[in-house]
UniProtKB/TrEMBL annotation:
Residues 1-22 form the signal peptide. The keyword Transcription does not apply. The keyword Repeat applies. SMART domains: TPR (SM00028). It comes from Cyclobacterium xiamenense. This is Tetratricopeptide repeat-containing protein. Pfam families: TPR_1 (PF00515), TPR_16 (PF13432).
């Protein structure tokens, strides 16, 4: 605990006792961000950009701090300033895409993820997040391509597999969606949402009441209350 707090205390004393440099302000902003002190991080970075408004990385980190606070418009503004200063860095495009996603502005998010992917095609997170934006736009086949690209980096990702299943259902492919959902619950046996979607799909798409009820009851036991309506209507004798 003390080892964790000491660097921040030393940094505070440094910044309070002298005129900090741009780099010291940047490091203070990053440290505060990592410690989830978002207001403090923004305060340091505001001081930095007053000294040097052309510091692209500072605008990006400032945007992340605003994003973590849920201040999405301010985050987008900061990411945009970072992009204008350094349009060859994928990170502010990716981060701005995430902010657009939180606003459910899927088309704007897709544009930013495309830019990020063009700058660094090896980042698997870009494929996953772009897949989510495509899913939001009901572009299911394209979403599946991106989810598969994300799974190439690591096949055992329950969140990716779950959203892949949603895209497969949107693409009228319940059999493969069930296979994806079965993989989700194999990896995460307490994933109530996956059990629920698995149960609904088994019953509504394949007419498999026994399997569907088993999955729905599991979802309900894990606290997924939406499953109760299905269980009460279809699974009680």
């Amino acid at each position: 605990m003390y080892n964790y707090l000491f660097p921040s205390l030393a940094l505070f004393l440094l910044l309070a006792s002298c005129q900090p440099s741009v780099e010291e302000l940047f490091q203070a902003g990053v440290t505060s961000l990592e410690e989830q002190n978002y207001k403090e991080s923004i305060a340091y970075l505001d001081r930095l950009v007053e000294k040097d408004s052309s510091h692209a990385a500072a605008w990006n980190v400032r945007g992340i701090a605003f994003f973590q606070q849920g201040a999405l418009d301010e985050a987008i503004e900061s990411f945009t300033k970072s992009i204008k200063l350094d349009s060859l860095n994928y990170k502010p495009f990716f981060n701005r895409g995430n902010a657009w996603m939180e606003k459910q502005s899927y088309r704007e998010a897709l544009i930013d993820y495309n830019r990020a992917n063009g700058l660094d095609f090896q980042q698997s997170d870009i494929y996953y997040n772009r897949g989510l934006s495509l899913l939001g736009l009901e572009m299911y086949e394209d979403a599946l391509v991106d989810f598969d690209m994300a799974l190439q980096a690591n096949p055992e990702q329950p969140a990716v597999l779950f959203n892949k299943a949603k895209a497969q259902l949107g693409n009228n492919d319940p059999v493969n969606a069930i296979a994806s959902l079965n993989e989700v619950v194999r990896l995460d046996q307490r994933n109530a949402s996956a059990y629920y979607l698995l149960g609904v799909t088994e019953m509504s798409a394949l007419g498999n009441k026994e399997k569907g009820c088993t999955q729905l009851k599991m979802a309900l036991s894990l606290g997924y209350t939406q499953a109760k309506e299905w269980v009460d209507e279809f699974c009680e004798e």
